[in-house]
Design a protein that fits this description.
The protein is of the alpha+beta class. The chain folds into two domains: 39 residues; 180 residues, Umud Fragment, subunit A (Ribbon), CATH 2.10.109. It has seven helices and 18 strands. It starts with a helix and ends with a strand. Belongs to the peptidase S26 family. Pfam families: Peptidase_S26.
Length: 304
């Protein structure tokens, strides 16, 4: 009996050692996985056809975070809708016009103020960056001073042909996709003719006037965490009259490659830079949403 007890104790000790090592290794794996997601790479699934043909529903894209710099912020404060600050680590390069970017959608709850949802991500193409002036003429994107086309030009040409017909315009009106930001009857901006809209860069100054109030009110209120109102004698930020404003952040104009069906900057305005997770670099997996089979032709495809 004595020998049996001794062997049993040894067996318990070995089991305890194995369990503890397993728990420690699992904890290390969890920490490394979280660190990898925060600082190195992240995966996002594509649920809609707004980026067809480059990205399709069922694609899983890889975001290279060191390329542009990983973001650091308090996830718990963001989830509880408490004030928080987003900081970005140094990256290897800046965000560029024409890149496909993943970002937190800036209007998750209401359209008149910028919000943040840690679980709601969009993927679109950067049409214009800080300092650019974006416009749309006959359904085609234009960036002033840039001769090269931007975005999916094939889709823009098809949209232009559709909008040249009265029936096409009426169809988009019925689908509530014809009229655009800032939804002002005097400006009359549409998916056919939009802008020009200047995309602010950090440090840019603007004069406060009616148009700038329409274009940038949400951005100013988000930066200042205060209310901006227009009165007969001018513009008031938290009760203080202002005649101009200097921006604290960089902004971007984002557009879907499928410009017939994309909830993008044409409809909700400009995107703060700190909302951008990073550049989508590759499709690491692609699953047919109807059959569940893997489309091996798209696996590890470079996103351009």
């Amino acid at each position: 009996m004595k020998r049996i007890r001794i062997n049993f104790k040894k067996w318990l000790g070995r089991v305890y050692t194995v369990v503890m090592w397993s728990v420690c290794l699992y904890a290390v794996w969890i920490v490394l996985r979280i660190a990898g997601q925060v600082f190195l790479f992240a995966s996002f699934s594509i649920p809609s056809d707004s980026m067809v043909p480059v990205l399709r529903p069922g694609d899983y894209v890889l975001v290279n975070k060191p390329l542009k710099g990983a973001r650091i912020f308090n996830v718990w404060d963001a989830a509880e809708h408490r004030p928080f600050e987003i900081r970005r680590l140094p990256g290897l390069e800046e965000f560029r016009r024409g890149e496909v970017l993943v970002f937190n959608f800036p209007y998750p709850e209401r359209w008149d103020s910028i919000g943040f949802d840690v679980l709601l991500y969009y993927v679109k193409r950067c049409i214009g960056g800080p300092g650019d002036t974006v416009e749309i003429r006959d359904g085609r994107y234009r960036v002033r001073g840039i001769d090269a086309p931007v975005g999916n030009t094939d889709a823009q040409e098809r949209l232009s042909r559709l909008l040249s017909k009265k029936s096409g315009r009426e169809e988009m009106v019925r689908n509530r996709s014809y009229y655009t930001f800032p939804y002002d009857s005097l400006l009359g901006w549409t998916v056919k003719d939009f802008g020009p809209l200047y995309v602010p860069a950090r440090g840019d100054s603007i004069e406060m006037n009616r148009n700038h109030y329409l274009f940038y009110r949400n951005l100013i209120e988000w930066e200042q965490r205060g209310k901006l109102v227009q009165k007969d004698d001018g513009f008031y930020l938290e009760g203080r009259r202002i005649t101009g404003y200097r921006f604290r952040e960089n902004y971007y104009f984002m557009g879907g490659d499928n410009c017939f069906n994309s909830q993008d900057s044409r409809y909700w305005g400009l995107l703060p830079e700190c909302y951008i997770v990073g550049k989508a670099t590759r499709i690491w997996k692609s699953v047919d949403p109807y059959t569940g089979s893997v489309d091996w032709r798209r696996v590890w495809k470079c996103i351009e």
